[in-house]
C-alpha cells in the first residue's frame, strides 16, 4: 500500500476524532451555547451529557486502527442526528455563529462517510 493510501485515512481519522473530542469541553462544562442547544430540543442536561459520552467513544474508536469503522459508524449516527436537529428544530445558525456548527457537522459527516467507505472491508458483525 502506498504511503498516500495510508496517510489519507489517518489524516481523516485525526480530523474527525479531534472535531468530536474538542466539542466535549462545551458539553461537559455546561457551556451556555451547549445548554441553549440541548434546552431548545428538550434534551438538557441528559442529552448533552449522553451525546458527549457518545462523541468521546466515537473519537477514541476512530484513533484505534481496528475500530475505525465502528467509530466512523457511530460518528455518522451522532452527526446525522445533529444535522437533522439543525434542519428541523434549531436552524442553520445558532447564536449568531454564521452556521459554523451546522457546516462543521456537514463536513464531519462527509469525512466519517469517506472513512467508513475506506474501511468497508473491515466491517464485521461477528
Overview of this structure, please?
It is built from six helices and no strands. It is mainly alpha-helical and 126 residues long. The protein has one domain (3-121). It is elongated. Helix 1 runs antiparallel to helix 4 and helix 1 (3-22) runs antiparallel to helix 6. This is DoxX family membrane protein. Keywords: Membrane, Transmembrane, Transmembrane helix. It is a multi-pass membrane protein.
Which helices and strands appear, and what pairs or packs with what?
Elements: H1 3-22, H2 24-28, H3 32-40, H4 46-63, H5 68-90, H6 100-118
Helix pairs in contact: 1-4, 1-6, 4-5, 5-6
User: Largest beta sheet, briefly?
Assistant: none
Shape: elongated
Mean of residue pLDDT values: 95
Order of helices and strands: HHHHHH
Structural class: mainly alpha
Uncertain segments are none
Counting H and I runs of at least 4 residues, what is the number of helices?
A: 6
Q: Strand content of the residues, in percent?
A: under 5%
Alpha carbon gap, first and last residue: 27 Å
Number of domains: 1
Estimated helix fraction: over 70%
Number of strands: 0
Task: Write down the Rg.
Answer: 15 Å
In a nutshell, what does this entry contain?
This protein has 126 residues and is mostly helical. The protein has helices spanning 3-22, 24-28, 32-40, 46-63, 68-90, 100-118. The mean pLDDT is 95.
Amino acid at each position: 500500500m502506498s504511503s498516500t493510501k495510508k496517510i489519507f485515512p489517518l489524516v481523516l481519522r485525526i480530523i474527525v476524532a479531534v472535531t468530536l473530542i474538542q466539542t466535549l469541553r462545551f458539553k461537559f462544562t455546561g457551556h451556555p451555547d451547549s445548554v441553549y442547544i440541548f434546552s431548545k430540543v428538550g434534551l438538557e442536561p441528559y442529552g448533552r451529557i449522553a451525546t458527549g459520552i457518545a462523541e468521546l467513544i466515537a473519537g477514541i474508536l476512530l484513533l484505534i486502527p481496528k475500530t475505525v469503522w465502528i467509530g466512523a459508524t457511530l460518528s455518522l449516527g451522532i452527526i446525522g442526528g445533529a444535522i437533522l436537529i439543525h434542519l428541523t428544530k434549531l436552524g442553520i445558525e445558532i447564536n449568531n455563529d454564521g452556521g459554523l456548527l451546522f457546516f462543521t457537522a456537514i463536513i464531519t459527516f462527509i469525512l466519517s462517510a469517506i472513512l467508513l467507505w475506506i474501511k468497508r472491508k473491515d466491517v464485521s458483525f461477528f
